[in-house]
Structures are given as C-alpha cells and as structure tokens.
Write a structure and sequence with these properties.
The structure is a homodimer. Chain A is α/β, with parallel strands linked by helices and about 325 residues long. Chain A has twelve helices and twelve strands. In chain A, helix 2 crosses helix 3 and helix 8 runs parallel beside helix 9. Chain A is elongated and about 90 Å long. Chain A binds a DNA duplex (30 and 30 nucleotides) through helix 2 and helix 4.
DNA sequence: TCACGTTTGTGGAACGTTCCCAAAGTGAAA
DNA sequence: TTTCACTTTGGGAACGTTCCACAAACGTGA
C-alpha cells in the first residue's frame, strides 16, 4: 500500500463549512439537533470533499461493530453455501454485516481456535456456527464469550440457541416412504454420529425406523463421497436389496453416477433417496427423491434469534425445529417382482 | 445489546504485568524489542485476562484494515457463489479479509451506490467486482477511488484490471464442436450484450462462428431461465433444427427439463450445450457438454492482481485471459438421419 | 426588564491501539 | 573511569469519531 491520499475527515468538513466538528458529527450521524441552514452548509461541504463516514472510528467509540461472525467449517458444501447466503441477506435486513471465518478446511483444533480468535479481534458482536462437523462441546466455550446461535444442525445443549430442521423427522419420513412402497431389504449409507452432527442422526433415524417396521437393513459406512464406487459394489453383492438410502443429495448423486456406470436401472432395480434439497442437485432432470430442508428459513430464523439475543431478550424458542418436506421424485418406486 | 462486560485492553494487561502499555503493545504486535523476562510476564498476564487484540483500534491508527470489498450483484448464481469462495480463500492466504456487498438484488442505481458507500465506510482497501450485470462505465468511478479488479468477466477498459476466461474462445469452441458433429441448423438462446457482460458476448460468439461456417442459426432471446418452456416450444416449431446452444449450465438444465417433459430425446433428436462448468450442475449423471471456466483460478489470480496493486506494483498483465476447457458429455451427438 | 427554558453551537475527553522520542540501563571499548 | 553504542522501557501524541458539559443566542411569559 503506497501513499494514497487520506480520506477527508469530519474536521476537514467542519473547516470548509466553517463550523465545529461536533456539528458535522451530528449531521452525519443524525443525532442531536442542528440548525437547518447549518445542516445544509455541512452537507454541501461533505459532498464537495467526498466525505464518507469512517465506520472504523465510529465502531471504536461506540463499542459496536454491527458485525456478526459466521463460523463455517465445511463451507464448500452447497448446503452451507446456501445457508451462508441466507444468513447474509437476513443480517443485512437487520443492519448487520457478516464476516465469515473458516477453519481453512483443516481438521486441527488450533485451526478453529485461530478462526475464533480472528473473529474476536474484529469484535464481532455475536456468532453463528454453521458446521455439521464441529462437536457441541467445542461450541460451548464460544457461547461463553459471545451470544451464539447454531444454525442448520440439531443442538440440544441447554446453554446454546439453535435453529434447525429435525433430522429424526426427515430420516423417518424417507424410511416410511420406502416402507410404504414395499421395500423390506434396504441399504443405508451411514455416517457415524461422532463424525457429523447432522449426517449421523439422520442415518441413525433411517436405520432405526426401518428396523422397527420389520425391514432388514444393511449398513454401509460411507462418510466420503469418493467411496461411492465401493458402496455400489457392496450393495450389488446383496441381490435381495431393493433400495439405498444416503445421507445427503450429494451422496445420492455420487451413488447414482456409480450405478449408471454399472448399468443398474434406477428406480426399477434399486430405489435411491437423498437428503437436504439443494436446489441445483434436485433438478427435475434427475428427479431425486429426498427430504427438503427449508434452508432459507433456517438462515433467517437463526439471524432473527441472534438479533433478539443481542437486544438482550431471550428468543422465544430456545431450540427451533423447522418443518421439512418429503419430495418424491423418480428415483424411488416399488421393488421389482 | 445490553451491558456485556468490556473486553480487557492493553492497559489492563499492562497493569497486571506491572509494565507500561507500550511494552504490552510491542509484545502483542511483535514490533520493537522487549526483554525476554518481561515478554513472558506480559504474555502470562494477557492469557490470564483473556486479552485479544482489538483489530478496530489497530485499524484506526494504522490506517489499514486488511479488508477488501467484493461487490457482487448476482450473488445467488452458482458461478458467482463459487467465485466468491475462491476469492475468500485466496485473500485469506494473503492476509486479507473479504467483506461482501450486494446490490440486494434490486436493479436501481441508488442501490449499487449504497453498497459502494458501505464498503467505503468500512475503509476496504480495494475492490473486487464480480457481476455479469454491472456495465463497465459504472465500474470506472469505483476504480477512481480504490484499486479495483474485475473478476470473471471480460473487461477492456484501459483503467481497470481484470481476470477472466475469454468468452469468444468458449463460444467458438462449443460452436466448433457442434459443427464438427455435422449440425447445420442450430438454435442459440441469446442474451443481449447490453443485459449481461458475460452471457452476451458468449452467445454472440456462438452465433458468429456458426454463421461464418455456413450453419443456419435461429436466435431465441432468452435472458430468463423461467421462459425455458417457450424456448423448447420455439425450437420444436422448427423441425430442421438439430441442436440448441445455451448461455450457461443453468439455462441448459432448464431447457433439458422442458425437453424431458415433452419427451424429446437428447442427444438423439436434439443436442444441447451449456457453459461455465458449475460442479454440481455438470455431474456425469447428466453429462452436459459445456465449456468449463477455471473459476478457482480466476478467483485466486484476481486476488493476486489486487494484492500487487495494493503493493503499488502494476500487475504484469493488465487483462488476464485464462484458458477454459471444452468438456464433451452425452448431451451432444451427430444429428439424426 | 428579568428570569427561565429551548435550541444551537463549541471544546474537550474518551475509545484502544501504534509510533516516536526521550530516559534509563547495560556492557564493551578506550 | 569515561564514553559510546545499543537495548529496554515509559510517556504522550495521534488516529476519527461520539458524547457530554457548557456557553451563547433567542424567544416568551410574568
């Protein structure tokens, strides 16, 4: 950064308008009374100099930054991408900015700590945690320092506010749909509850509901989409299986790609389900049967809750579970035979 | 915001450690020399109080915010979403933060002006403009105030630096691909150059190249994806047409959905092409033939150029055109008959 | 005319840093 | 011992705002 011209300050404006800096401050901040004639002179001077309020100086004295920090671990996934957009939009509506900190993809604790530190340096007023990976216990210390809302994932810790779409309901609805179609031998691509707070519970719900209703379940551990080829192979080794449930739309797409390579007919030979309702992935072209989460609503409700916390109120619902929708596409059908 | 406890300051730390604030400042900022024993005492005191540097105060005195503003108009589109992520990542690498301002979707000029004003208030050090909609002339005044780089769209104005993937090359390559397959009657969903700086030129290039090589082109004006049904109807009114070129992957998907509803076989009856190479949209499951832009590279090169501008150097290439790739999928094939 | 409230304007302190300059301390060379 | 260079420390100004206490000006009703 080389010597670029300094921005004009309140004092430059005051000098040009022939008043004190206090008057200019009152004009630009809109607090306190100023004579009509004086106000006009000040505005003209500001215009002439190209004066723009310095939010940094203002933030320092006001002890307010009107900024909330979004902590995102798995930002690259479309679900969190959408969520972030929704947050940003709603925050702007309330007059807040969002700065995003990410654990830079790494899985080390120090990484997260640094990200939080950065947000603290910026004096964000509150925190929105969006991450299916970060375990609850790690969020508690954040919440002790700043008003914190967890968005897009189930959270039960009493000291934390959260907004999410119930994972049990989604997993159960999808499982019920397959049972209703007549499937009784079903594979579930499972994710350990310990490795993802969102993906774990939903696959657990699927498995549980299926078993409770007399279906036989083959659990295939599948945290990484890259192993979709292996899932396909494993499913096909069990010819009695007629349906596969996956933990997310992306997992479903990856599986469908693999099945296509192997010339397996969907839904004739195998039914497949997704989860999330990511716009681009659930195009009618593919017609994926899935559980749709109201991502935009989750985002805006999370921000609303945060704003209430900032205003000192306790939000009405400490943990808000929003309703999702079962979307039936063309990747599920009654089992053959 | 109700009375939450003040954050400890450098002075609190100094008092606890029994030194002056200057010493603490030198320890936490890492400039200037401090005795080893004193440094340890200061660090211990900072730890004990939970001291975190105040970036706001620091920014004020240093006249640096290490923040760049990203101005995005069409943020909801996946192309710009990806680009934004890439920018953020690379900026972090260089030690900068990104704050995003959007024209809130509206199309009024005052809207844009306010967004720019907001960024100016925050004292961002530079600007990255990502928008296919904003016309060049409107960017020039931004660039007069702040170092500015335009990312992801062609830009030829001499006073502006830009990084993009050449639209001519992409349009020409896709057109050449169809010509090579033997298509001679082709529809192009066109976008007026005036309404989008990216979509306009690429469809113009397609049309031009096709015509120059003896193909007959039917131009269908199609800025909005919602009218995909009308495109399909129009194309099918001309039975001689064997291929349709669209201005983006999303347009292509929308068209494919409509063709599917009408039971039109792709690619047997009609070939279809996309443009951009959005990861989620170009899944092998759909196998869309498209031109892939190196979005991540565009983002990181744009940030690199910006950092050079901030360092007072002129970036080596004023306008950097990066190479794209022709990706041939299963939505294009030789014409029937 | 006087006392009093209201409106408008002024100057200075405060916010939490960094940076500059001066002072004090520490050795080593003269 | 004195001098000099160098390291370490402390005090104060500056950054650009907001806010507070106060002064001046101006009616206004008694």
């Amino acid at each position: 950064m080389t010597d670029r011209p300094r921005n004009p300050t309140i004092i430059d404006v005051a000098r040009l308008a022939g008043v004190s800096k206090s008057v200019v401050s009152r004009v630009v901040s809109g607090r306190g009374s100023v004579g009509e004639e004086t106000r006009r002179r000040v505005l003209r001077a500001a215009e002439e100099l190209g004066y723009v309020v310095n939010a940094v100086a203002r933030a320092m004295v006001a002890h307010r930054t009107y900024t909330v920090g979004a902590f995102v671990r798995d930002a690259a996934t479309p679900f969190y991408g959408h969520l972030l957009t929704a947050l940003q939009e709603r925050a702007a509506f309330h007059g807040y900015r969002v700065v995003t900190a990410t654990g830079s993809g790494g899985f080390e604790v120090s990484d997260e700590y640094r990200a939080l530190e950065t947000l603290a340096m910026l004096r964000v007023e509150a925190l929105i945690v969006c991450s299916g990976l970060l375990p609850s216990e790690q969020i508690v210390p954040f919440a002790a320092r700043l008003p914190t809302v967890v968005a897009g994932r189930p959270e039960t810790h009493p000291s934390i506010t959260s907004v999410y779409c119930d994972e049990d309901e989604g997993g159960t609805a999808l499982a019920g749909h397959l049972l209703g179609l007549g499937h009784r031998e079903i594979a579930v691509i499972t994710v350990a509850a310990s490795s993802s707070v969102t993906l774990g519970p939903r696959t657990a719900a699927m498995t549980r509901h299926l078993r409770e209703h007399g279906a036989r379940v083959l659990e295939i551990p599948g945290p990484h989409r890259e192993t979709a080829g292996a899932w396909a192979t494993e499913v096909l080794r069990h010819p009695e299986i007629t349906a596969v449930m996956t933990p997310s739309d992306r997992h479903a797409i990856a599986l469908l790609e693999q099945l296509r390579l192997r010339d397996v007919a969907v839904p004739e030979r195998l039914s497949v389900t997704g989860y999330d309702g990511i716009g681009d992935l659930t195009t009618p072209l593919i017609g994926l049967t899935h559980w749709r989460q109201p991502i935009d609503l989750i985002g805006s409700r999370a921000v609303d809750a945060l704003v209430r916390l900032l205003d000192g109120e306790q939000p009405p619902d400490h943990h808000q579970a929003l309703p999702g929708t079962l979307v039936i596409g063309r990747t599920t059908a009654p089992p053959a035979g």
